[in-house]
Structure formats: structure tokens, C-alpha cells
Amino acid sequence: MKRRILIVDDETGIRDSLSIGLEREGCEVAEAPDAEGALSVAGAFHPDLALVDVRLPGRDGLWVLQHLREAGVPVVMISGNATLREAVEAVKQGAFDFLEKPLSIDKVLVTIHRALDYERIKTRVAILSEKAGPAEPVGNSPVWSQALDTAERVAPTDAAVLLIGESGTGKELVAGWIHAHSARAEGAFVPVNMAAMPETLIESELFGHEKGAFTGAAATRKGKFELAAGGTLFLDEIGELPVALQPKLLRALESGEIQRLGGEGTRKTDARIIAATNRDLAAAVAAGKFREDLFFRLNVIPIRLPPLRDRGDDARLLADIFLENFCKRHRRPLMRWTPEARDLLRRARWPGNVRELKNLCERLAILHEGDIPAAVVEDMLSFPAQSGTVGGAAEGELRAKLDKVEADILRETLAACGGNHTTAAQRLGISRSQLYRKLERLGIKTELTG
Questions:
Q1: 225: domain CATH number?
Q2: I need a labelling partner for 142 at 20 to 30 A (CA). Which of 23, 41, 129, 198 fits?
């Protein structure tokens, strides 16, 4: 794609030489001899970047810089006789760089590429920052810090890790963090949820299949082990792996080889294994529902992730992050928790843990206006706080209020997901079947998509 470059300089020779050099490199160029002309041309031309002389007739280049930066256009300042003070001021006002005349077209091109790369990265970071949760595990409580200390020590190794914690405690986030801080960070992080797949598809998902291996296998397909080669395979809800498939997973872990469904030979695999469970696997072993040898193979480095109710002020810290990010995502005014609401965040039981807190913050960002009182938080919580009743409301009244809030959230989420039930269920942190039951209970009619 051609880059559009605006040149603002009162010297015709400078404009001409820059235009020729830039057009030779495939850029589309527009010119302006003064400040007013620069803004007029920029409004019609929509430049990707502007080269602006500091000294211009009438208004100076710093005035142009200010207006172009407000419009989101990156600017490189140029000058033949600017003072150091002017150069410093230009950079302070947002200029990417400051080039002195006479200009080398090669240096100009290098600077343009650097500036555009910087803008691209900055835009990407801005997009990522709008995601609802922090990119890395956040928390200051001793129990959380202890878990992260263990994760930090094990990250550089290839040791198998078993993350143990209730649903919603952040097991996938921590697994991704371990991968990102390992020697395999350049490889893929491949999550697979055992509880989210039909038993008949798990083997094919993990190990892949050859064409014709079963009805509907129209083409050869790599499994998760192969896709994670050189990276990390995250086996979420490992306790849900059917007993019949546990020996095959154990062989893959012990031999470093897999066999595709319908295939004859074996294939080498090179994936680090991080598993996670919300079940007591030792009890499952005792009950004959999980192989002891597989448990020992996965449980090399166990890390217990504490429930949110045991993390003290972490709930308030996370609530601030989630609420701010959801307000930005949904283009809503920033909100604040009242002191009573902040106290309630700390006392709440959070049976759904961080996932429940995250969902609460998204509901508030969408449905609430202004500062958030404790009563509104109580109404939206899945369960009452540790002490006291829920706002003193009668049970029937409260149920009706909660149903209305829940129905509004379901409709809003489905609309935001284009009616796709799978995407909506994932955003709400529930299964599709749970979503269907809620829709039926609340009398919400939708088209069945996704």
C-alpha cells in the first residue's frame, strides 16, 4: 500500500527534491508552502506522515505540528537553521524526530519507516489495552504472590506444571504468562479445554487425524500436539479427560511421540505441557477416575491458585482495572466505586472468582450510570456478601430485579456478538447449554446461530 507523505516547506527546491526521492520509493506525495496550506492539504489528502519545516511564513511549523498531532498524524520536523530550543520544543510537542538540512533522502526514508512502525506498534498497544483484563497476572496478596513466585521460577524450565484452582481463578492467564516468560515464548501457546469437547472428538483434537480416518474426515488435520510444537500445550480441565484416552496421553508425554488417528507411523512432538484442573485429582485417582501414573507425570510442579475471596484487596484492584477497561471498550463514561461498594468487593464470596468479578464489571459498564453504590453491586452479585442480607429486599422482589438485569445483559451480549450463541456464552463465562437454559427461563426468543 502506498504511503501518503505531506511535505510542508516554503522552499520549492526542498519540496521538489523530497517529492522526487519519495515518489521513487513508491510514496504518494502532497506539498504545501505554508501553515494554512498544510492544514488545508492535510484535510483532503489524509497523510500517513508529514515532514514539516520549523520556519514557515506566517504561522510556524510548531503550530502545524500541534494541529497535525491532534489529528493523529505523525510528524517529522526539518530545518536548516533551527535553534536547539526549537528542536527540544518540537519533540516535547510530539514530533517523532528532528532532521537538519541539507537532507539525505536515505536518512529521510529511514526516519519515515521508523515513525510509521512506531505508530503501528502504538496503535496495536492501544487496541490490546482495551481488552477487559490485564495482560499479566495482577495482585498483591501474599497467597497470590506466592503462586506467581513459583510460576516465575518454573517458567524458564521445560518442567510440566499443574495449575490447581477453582473455576475462574485465572489458570489460563497464568499458563500463558509462564509460556511468555519461557524459552518457548516465540512458539505457539495452544489451549485446549477437555470439558468443552465431545468425548468422541478429543482424540482427534489432541493427536490429529489422517484423511478418511472416520466419517467426515475429508482431509488430514494436525492435532494440538503438533500445532504446539516448539511452544506450549495448555491442557485445561485435564480432570475431564476420559479414562479411555488417558493411556494415549501418557504415552505421548513419556515418549515424546504421537500417532494421528487413522495413521500408521508415529511423529515426534516437542511441546511443553501445562495442565490445569478445578478438581481434586488425587481423590479422582483414589476413586479410579484418573490414572495415577498420568497424575504423577503432570504434577511435577503443582501451583495452587487461590480463590478470589482469599486474596484480600486484590478484588478491589482487579475491579478498578476491569471497570476502566470495560468503560473504554463500550465507550462509556468512566465510573467510580463508592466507599461502601469498594468494601463490599472485598467482603463478597465470589463463587465464580475473577471471572465473576470481570462479568460484574462489564454489566456495570453497560447498564449503570454514574458512581456505583453498594446496593447495585449487591443486586448483581451471584450470591450475597459474607455478612448481612442483600439490601433488605424481599426475596421475590430481588429475584425479579436480578432476572431483569440478567435478561438485559443477555440481550446486550447477544447483540454485541451478532446473535452468535457460542461467542456470547464465552463472553459471559458460561457454556452454550447454560445460555440456552437462561434464555428459555427468561423467555428470550433469539435466532439460533453459532
A1: 3.40.50.300
A2: 129
Closest CA to 345 of 306, 305, 376: 376
* Domain end (from 291, 306, 321): 306
Summarize pLDDT for 146-196 with one digit per residue, the tens.
999 999 999 999 999 999 999 999 999 999 999 999 999 989 999 999 887
Domain assignment present for 450 = no
Q: How many CA atoms lie within 13 A of 251 on its CB side?
A: 12
CA atoms within 13 Å, Cβ hemisphere of 228? 25
Contact 155, 201 (CB under 8 A): no
State the DSSP string of 246-262. HHHHHHHHHHSEE--BT
The whole domain housing 12 covers: 4-129
Chain Cα centroid distance, residue 321: 13
Is 448 a member of any domain?
no
All three cell numbers of 344, joined, read 463490599
- CATH code of the domain covering residue 363: 1.10.8.60
Percent of the chain scoring above 90 in pLDDT: 51
